[in-house]
Amino acid sequence: MIEATGLVKRYRRTTALDGASFTVRPGVVTGFVGPNGAGKSTTMRLILGLDRPSEGSVTVGGKSYRELAAPLREVGALLEADAVSGRRSARDHLRWIAKGARIPDSRVGEVLGMVGLADAAGRRITALSTGMRQRLGIATALLGDPPVLLFDEPLHGLDPEGIRWMRTLLQDLAGEGRTVFVSSHVLAELEETAEQVLVIGDGRIVADVPVTRLVAHRARRHVRVVSPDAAELTDALTSIGATVDSAGGGALTVTGIDAARAGTVARERGIRLHELCSRRGSLEDAVVSLMESRR
Ligand SMILES: Nc1ncnc2c1ncn2[C@@H]1O[C@H](COP(=O)(O)OP(=O)(O)OP(=O)(O)O)[C@@H](O)[C@H]1O
User: Fold this and answer.
1) The model's pTM
2) Which residues form the ABC transporter domain (predicted)?
């Protein structure tokens, strides 16, 4: 469990966090989303004791990071700026960290296996690809088998197979009862992975809800229609009260009517359709709408 109360972080000219209070619960993947500069990385750094809040406090398992007796066994983290480098091999890098944290050497092989790096364990870190380094960062986070895990942009550098692997890993870790807190700008992926979402804007928490609820409340169902007569169709649909936006290439996004009504109107006017389908809104639609409503 992560608990933040009234977190404020001021830099000289910027207020990065402006009274953020939230709880991240165990057993589910919680996504952490918000525009660039909203305060996600700052929040992560405060949780990890890498920076001190100007006001307020944040605890992991009831204690501030600095009070944790064995930090790597309490909380594991992959930060965006974690880019490990060096001449050591992946295995030696992990051994070195394990030794410092009094974690048994046998755990190194385990975590290398968990992240799919067993075969690359002897390679120098500098010779690893971006995605492999990302996996090494995750292995480091898992080293102490901690109940709380923070991942800042964990999809960075991963290929499609890696992204799918990451989704399963995060869900498995949450399924084991851990607290899994993940920031990401890849909202389509987060929608598949996270159960809960914490939305931050201008240093304040603007939503803390189940992903499905945010999407249901904020992202409207719409109709997608593709027609070679898009202009004519737009006029026809607008005249019956629909809202029509161009999605490019003859595709239209229509709200205010359902797909059946759009199809009927097209037939009545003799307008050709190449595609007609009903779509639910996405997490991305929901977050964009939430942010726009605050302007
Ligand atoms: N060390 C620092 N000194 C001064 N300002 C900072 C510092 N770190 C962050 N900021 C500012 O605090 C605000 C929040 O930044 P933060 O990196 O937490 O946002 P973020 O949500 O992680 O953004 P992104 O999605 O771009 O990674 C920004 O305005 C940023 O410029």
Assistant:
1) 0.87
2) 2-227
Domain positions in the chain are 2-211, 220-279
In this prediction, residue 225 has a pLDDT band, given cuts at 50, 70 and 90, of very high
pLDDT of residue 82: 58
Any idea which architecture 2-211 has in CATH?
A: 3-Layer(aba) Sandwich (3.40)
Q: What is the DSSP letter of 182?
A: E
Asked whether the beta carbons of 286 and 219 are under 8 A apart, the reply is yes
CA 258 to chain CA centroid, nearest Å? 31
Rounded to two decimals, the ipTM of the complex is 0.97
What is the side-by-side order of every strand in the sheet holding 251-255?
A: 243-248, 251-255, 222-226, 275-279
Å from CA of 39 to ligand 1 middle = 6
Query: 55 — alpha (psi -120 to 50), left (phi > 0) or beta?
Result: beta
Which residue's alpha carbon is at the smallest distance from atom 18 of ligand 1? 39
Ligand 1 contacts (CB < 6 A) are 11, 14, 16, 34, 36-42
If you search the block for the tokens 């359709």, which residue do you land on? Answer: 273
| Tokens at 73, concatenated | 């066994």
Distance 184 CA to ligand 1 centre (A): 15
Owner of token pair 């305060």: 39
Q: Which residue type is seen at 277?
A: C
